[in-house]
Design a protein that fits this description.
Strand content: 15-25%
Strand order of the largest sheet: 3-7-8-5-4-6
Distance between the termini: 53 Å
Shape: elongated
Largest sheet: 6 strands, antiparallel
Length: 324
């Protein structure tokens, strides 16, 4: 079993539960492949199988295998398998202690993968357009962004599927490509309606985008909470609260009258809006916005029935041409 753990980078504490993630047949396949790649036909011969089409397709969809550009197959690392498993499979049949360790292991991987980019951005370096970085978008910007996207695929949110730190909907992740063919292809209008409903429920819109050499957009539009979202967990870990996701706006009170309903206070994911206690016989006090805490996600503004909160732009993005 040690060989399998080395091949896929499986954390040692998962060994008692390895059968939750891989079937005996998949384990034999991974051991056969080892750290190399081979054709499906060669893998089938080594396993003594007459045909491997259905078996290998299933292993690919489950995040057990990668398909290389030259048509060969290779083992997928355990991060890929874990995401697929958390999104669509067992998750609930592990002890809570093991779930917590898995999430910490995955978060550490995410933080280490992005650490250099985050530290560069914190040092004032420009955002690299070719590297996927998250940034908050307002609803109008999302609508304009979607005009540049050809295909939309609905996936469960991998952060909430793994962390399960809130009761918000998991069917909210709009990806622009369909890795392993397991997302549901939806229309542009349907994608936008999911974003609007997510915002109504208090979720923030964060675009995780990069631009390839041909100027094409890759990535996803995430509808995030502050409880589960890996980018927000990273920002707390590295002290990058205004950087990851990138904060481009600040909420501000508009000239329109505020009725003191306090909805903005309840909707703010970061506690940036406060409201003094109402004195007996007096009208509700006007909320106050702490600009040092505000991330500019816009959830307060979209939830204000009086339209008494506006969003002031404070920073540009390298990708703004796609949504402004």
């Amino acid at each position: 079993m040690t060989v399998l753990f080395d091949i896929c980078g499986i954390p040692a504490f998962i060994e008692p539960w390895i059968d939750r993630f891989y079937s005996p047949r998949e384990i034999e396949l991974l051991k056969t492949l080892g750290v190399s790649a081979m054709t499906a036909r060669d893998a089938g011969k080594k396993l003594g199988l007459e045909t491997t089409d259905g078996f290998l397709d299933r292993a690919w969809r489950r995040g057990v295998l990668h398909r290389l550009d030259d048509g060969r197959i290779a083992p997928a690392d355990f991060h890929t398998r874990f995401e697929s498993w958390a999104l669509f499979e067992g998750w609930q049949d592990l002890p809570e202690k093991i779930k917590g360790r898995l999430n910490r292991w995955e978060l550490d991987h995410y933080v280490n993968r992005h650490r250099k980019t985050v530290e560069s951005l914190m040092a004032g370096q420009p955002r690299p357009a070719a590297e996927t970085c998250p940034e908050y978008l307002l609803l109008g910007e999302v609508a304009r962004l979607f005009q540049h996207i050809e295909s939309f695929y609905l996936w469960p949110c991998n952060c909430r599927a793994m962390v399960r730190g809130c009761a918000k909907s998991q069917l909210t992740c709009i990806r622009f490509s369909n890795d392993r063919g397991i997302g549901w292809e939806i229309s542009r209008d349907r994608a936008l309606s999911i974003v609007n409903e997510s915002n109504r429920q208090g979720l923030m819109q964060s675009a995780e985008l990069a631009v390839d050499g041909r100027g094409r957009l890759n990535g996803a539009l995430c509808n995030c909470c502050n409880d589960c979202c890996f980018p927000h967990q990273l920002s707390r870990s590295l002290g990058a609260e205004k950087i990851w996701p990138l904060s481009r706006y600040l909420a501000e009170l508009s000239p329109l009258p505020c009725n003191g309903c306090g909805r903005c206070v309840r909707r703010c994911p970061f506690g940036a809006i406060s409201q003094a206690k109402r004195a007996k016989g007096s009208p509700p006090p006007i909320p106050a916005i702490d600009e040092t805490v505000c991330r500019g996600c816009g959830v307060c503004a979209t939830g204000c029935p009086q339209e008494a909160i506006g969003m002031q732009k404070i920073k540009a993005s390298a990708l703004e041409t796609y949504y402004t």
